[in-house]
Amino acid sequence: MLKQILETMYIDPELLAELSEEQKQILFFKMREEQIRRWKERETKLLREEENQKIVKPKKDNGKCVHWLHGKNDDVWVWVMGEHPLDKPYDHICDEIIAERARLQAQKEAEELRRANEEALAKSLSNSLILQKQKEAEEAQRSRLAERQAVKQEEEARRAAAAEQERLQMELKKKEEEEKKQEEELKQKEELRTQELYITIKEAQEAVLQTEKEDPVYQEMLRKSKAADERRRSIAKQARDDYKRLSMQGIERGKVAAFAKIIEGEQQPPPIPPRKSKLNNTPDNNNSKVLQRKMGIKRTTSKSTKEEIVRWFRDDQLLLHAGYEKSTNSIAPWFHGIIPRQEAEDLLTPKKRGSFLIRVSERIQGYALSYRSDDAIRHFLIDASGGFYGLLGVDQMQHTSLAELVEYHKAEEITSLGKEKLLFPCGQKDNHRPDYEELFQ
Q: Does residue 153 sit within a domain?
């Protein structure tokens, strides 16, 4: 799952809401490291191409260029808006914008009122021009009356033309309705004829089929076909069981080899993720020259449908014995199917502290661990990529099965601050069908 997020550089907002604050910080740092790594690879490739082809880039006419601001570790300095104590909150910025708009509106209204008062004063001082304006207004009124009469005559003529056009449209519409009615009647007759032909053909087919069933040769062929199908199903089941057994043996051999390398000093266990607010990245001295970005990365959605998740579980996870108890063929009591977050919280709310369940995620190809703490229900994402299982951003240890992950965290805390231990498994609802039934069909 983490590999899928780093490839697309996108995480669904609903999925992001299920992460804890510690998981969000670590996921942000991982995505930032992946961006810097891709940028450095792209810049190195462009620099190598220019050196091989000996292309000299012409300078721009305006002489402008882009320079990145670097931090103390000689890496590109990044500022996340809203994290600095002096950054204004979004509500404060919106209030300032609204206040500024209100001030400008009040200023505009005051200016209009001043102009209106000046115009009224100018009108009161020009009494000598009022009479002349009244005469001009009377003449204009006479001309307007004449224009109105002309417009009225034109409007009457236009109405008469519109009435004639409406009459023609009504007649045309009536003809179209009659034609449509005739077409519907023809269509109904054709449908009735088609149904009669279909019934006749079906009766003939049933008669032929009944004759074939009564034939002893047909019965013998049918019996042989069923027997062949049963043999094929038996062979396929045996092949699946053999593949499952060999896969589990290969996983166990890989686990033993990894532990042997750790004991011999050839391989170190994975490091514990940092818990500080920023990560120190080692600068690349060979790629000190900064080039302009040439192209972007196309982003795709990471959301999966329920059918795809069910297919993924049946094709990949059943071979890894996911959801079963350790060294047995019975499904673990803490395992649940594709249930939403709210249903998991409803199951754990009446339980006591330390109760837990593992459910198949409804959005991605992975799992989610829901845990009952003292004050709330907490959720942790489980990365199931590469044939191993581990808590995203919290537990860097990789386990070969979900059962081993649960056994490990029965004795070890999930986080250093929460002191969460998996003590009491939360099972299915009483008198209900198991919610994982569709995964094992």
A: no
Amino acid 277: pLDDT: 35
Q: Is the pLDDT of residue 11 over 50?
A: yes
Q: pLDDT averaged over the chain?
A: 78
Domain of 341 in residue numbering reads as 304-439
pLDDT at 104 over 90: yes
Res. 154: pLDDT tops 70: yes
Residue at 403 is within a domain: yes
Report the percentage of the chain scoring pLDDT > 90: 15
Q: Which residues does 143 contact at the CB level (< 8 Å), separation at least 6?
A: none
Strands 355-360 and 424-425: parallel
Task: Provide CB contacts within 8 A for 439, sequence distance 6+.
Answer: 310, 313, 314, 323, 337, 338, 360
Of residues 123 and 171, the one with the higher pLDDT is 171
Q: Judge contact between 338 and 362, C-beta under 8 A.
A: yes
Q: What is the mean pLDDT of residues 102-129?
A: 85
Q: How far apart are CA 130 and CA 140, in angstroms?
A: 15
Query: Which residue type is seen at 422?
Result: L
CA atoms lying within 13 Å on the CB side of residue 117: 6
**Neighbouring-strand partners of residue 355:** 424
What's the burial of 355, exposed, middle or buried (CB within 10 Å: 0-12/13-18/19+)? buried
Q: Provide CB contacts within 8 A for 409, sequence distance 6+.
A: 395, 420, 421, 422
If one compares 118 and 267, the residue with the highest pLDDT of the two is: 118
Number of domains in the chain: 1
- Domain-embedded: residue 386: yes
Taking each helix axis from N to C end, the angle separating 216-264 and 127-214, rounded to the nearest 10 degrees, works out to: 120
Tell whether 413 is covered by a domain. Answer: yes
How much is the pLDDT for 134? Answer: 82
Residue 250 has pLDDT above 70, yes or no: no
Would you state the pLDDT for residue 63?
A: 64
Contact between 344 and 352 (Cβ < 8 Å):
no
Query: Where would I find the H helices in 362-422?
Result: 402-411
| Six-digit token string for 101 | 């708009």
Cα–Cα distances in angstroms (integers) from residue 186 to residues 87, 196, 272, 435, in the given order: 75, 16, 78, 53
| CATH number reported for the structural domain that contains residue 364 in this entry | 3.30.505.10
